[in-house]
Design brief:
There is one protein chain. This protein has eight helices and eleven strands. The protein is of the alpha/beta class. The chain has two domains: 3-118, Response regulator (Rossmann fold, 3-Layer(aba) Sandwich), CATH 3.40.50.2300; 127-216, Arc Repressor Mutant, subunit A (Orthogonal Bundle), CATH 1.10.10.10. The strands form three sheets. Strands 2-1-3-4-5 form a five-stranded parallel sheet, sandwiched between helices. Strands 6-7-8-9 form a four-stranded antiparallel sheet, with no helix packed on it. Strands 10-11 form a two-stranded antiparallel sheet. Strand 3 (48-51), helix 3 and strand 4 (77-81) form a beta-alpha-beta unit. Helix 6 packs across helix 8 (187-201). The mean pLDDT is 88.
Length: 217
């Protein structure tokens, strides 16, 4: 289940968006002001940030400028805003936003844009991983003429790690995004999948960050 942060100070619109996205299979955390949203971004991992611009305390532009320049955070960002001037659109993309949706907008359009940005990796036939080529649809790692067939969960874990662009993911992140709330595995099971991937890729490709989780270097 993908996790989305929603920053919107119009509480009625916030509730409408949250309800719609939850109905469509997303986990949504909502915030009214920029300071609390930024605090949560600093302490949690999200798959998508939906940010209004003109919100109390810290505006959406300031949040994106900070997380992109200072933290090198690569989480996809969609601005949802009533600002319609071209200069604001230009600023949003200059800061590193992935999309810009002007209010009022259709909820289905928002969903389509979210799906587009979240499916970046899943649509690729090949992804470069160190010296290997990863074929997620076939669940195969290739090195020259050699092919290594992965188990389904191994392939899903590797793809999830790649989608995080070097950010650390915890055991709970992996469980939540790959297994959801049903048939949850033990940490030992996940360690086994990671161990199998590291045997193929090499231990230095998937880094074990002690006490925190794993990341692709």
């Amino acid at each position: 289940m993908k996790k989305i942060l929603l920053l919107e100070d119009d509480l009625i619109l916030q509730e409408i968006i949250e309800e719609y996205l939850v109905e469509n299979g997303y986990s949504v955390e909502c915030f009214f002001n920029g300071e609390s949203a930024l605090d949560s971004i600093l302490s949690n991992r999200y798959d998508m940030l939906l940010l209004d611009v003109n919100v109390p305390e810290i505006n959406g532009f300031e949040i994106v400028e900070y997380i992109k320049k200072e933290l090198k955070n690569t989480t996809p960002v969609i601005f949802i805003t009533s600002l319609t001037e071209a200069k604001n659109l230009e600023k949003a993309f200059d800061l590193g936003a992935n999309d810009y949706l002007k209010k009022p907008f259709d909820l289905e359009e928002l969903k389509i844009r979210i799906e587009h940005h979240l499916s970046k990796f899943s649509k690729l036939d090949e992804i470069q991983v160190a010296e290997f080529e990863f074929l997620p649809k076939k669940q195969i790692l290739k090195l020259g003429d050699k092919e290594f067939k992965l188990k389904q969960k191994e392939s899903q874990i590797l793809q999830f790690l790649l989608e995080q662009n070097g950010n650390i993911v915890s055991f709970d992140d992996i469980i939540f995004n790959i297994w959801g709330e049903n048939d949850m595995p033990t940490y030992a099971t996940i360690r086994t999948y990671i161990k199998n991937l590291r045997k193929i890729l090499g231990a230095d490709v998937i880094e074990n960050v002690k006490g925190d989780g794993y990341r692709i270097k």
